[in-house]
Amino acid sequence: MRTTGPVARAEQTTSAVTSATDDVKAITKAVAYGLRSTQSRPQTVAEITAKLNGRFDDGAVVAAAVEQLESLGALDDVTFARMWVEDRGHRRGYGLTRLRQELRRRQVPEDIAQAALASLGERDELMTASDLARRRAATLPAALEPAAVARRLHAYLVRRGYNQGLANKVAINVSGLARHREWD
User: Fold this and answer.
1) For residues 81 and 78, what is the distance between their CA atoms, to the nearest angstrom?
2) Last residue of a domain, which of 32, 48, 72?
């Protein structure tokens, strides 16, 4: 038999308060987990959301935790994309194609990725690819034929995210193959 008097209302209120307290504890745990995760390396909102979904069953808890992490500044896709392009594009010399693929893989929204990649517009792709190819060529065996050097440099540059045409042009110039005219 169910009562509807003051005792029943008090029980319902107590149940609601207990549920809210449990939610606050779960959100606090989720935020702490998210903070620990982002301390080791910067991560996107999608990456943290996936991690939290794997650890916490309640979608509302995950959404609240992600919102708190964003308000704390621990999660910011714009900053992540800018730092990623700075590190991989400017420091490591990756090409536009590879950077775009990596940002997509990390589920950075397209508009944010495009804005971050726009900073590469200032960079001279030909000069960067040539520098990378020269450094790579210096590590190859000296006995290699120019055609073999050109093939290896071409493959290396394509793996780094440069388009086929640019990689071909740089590989021919750096390998000295243009002087030998052996390139297919």
Assistant:
1) 5
2) 72
